[in-house]
Fold this sequence. Notes:
The protein has helices at residues 30-44, 61-76, 88-97; strands at residues 2-4, 8-13, 16-25, 48-59, 80-84, 104-106. It is of the alpha/beta class. A six-stranded mixed sheet has the order 1-2-3-4-5-6, sandwiched between helices. The model has no long low-confidence stretch (mean pLDDT 90).
Amino acid sequence: xxxxxxxxxxxxxxxxxxxxxxxxxxxxxxxxxxxxxxxxxxxxxxxxxxxxxxxxxxxxxxxxxxxxxxxxxxxxxxxxxxxxxxxxxxxxxxxxxxxxxxxxxxxxxxxxxx
Length: 114
């Protein structure tokens, strides 16, 4: 497991890359998070990427861009992408944007939806 400034944790399990993001995803933090994730995906070319967002307290439209961009990058390499255990705040924004029609949402934890 590799920690990146305490906000992003990468864990590789077989051909699956799990990226755990915590805190806030806004225009200030999204660029650094995006660059780190892209470098990891480009280097490892995993067959599956799970973006775990259960510890994200706040996300604005920059977070939507972060999700869609990683989805596109993984698709480009022929892999599968999913958002794993989004927090209530994240799920609400994903639903408002209509992204759940395109992006797979996986829930492994019991929690109330937005």
